[in-house]
Amino acid sequence: MPKKIARPPRRRSPKVPEPLAPVPLLAPLDTLQRYSVEEALRYLRTSRGTIYRLIADGALKVRRDGGRTYVPGAEIARYSQLPTDPTEFSPGKRRRGRPRLEARD
Known about the structure:
The protein contains 4 helices and 3 strands, in the order E-H-H-E-E-H-H. With 105 residues, it is α+β, with helices and mostly antiparallel strands. The protein has a domain at 34-82. A hairpin with a 2-residue loop joins strand 2 and strand 3 (68-72).
């Protein structure tokens, strides 16, 4: 029976991270134009689910044309601005877990 020849261990090539996809440059926002939901989420830098939640909550007003949904540029500009009143910006107290039940007398 022939002897097995010991082979040197295989060298694995180092993992090179894939280059990030280039971020497309956005044109300046035109407040008189309407934008698709895809374009609006790029301007607001948020997810599709967040955009639709904002629409459902009434925080972002939209225009519908047939089956398509458009976000006016003025709405994108309005939503993306920070509030001028500091009390609007304060997040308030956040509580974790279940809400406590009030003590009964």
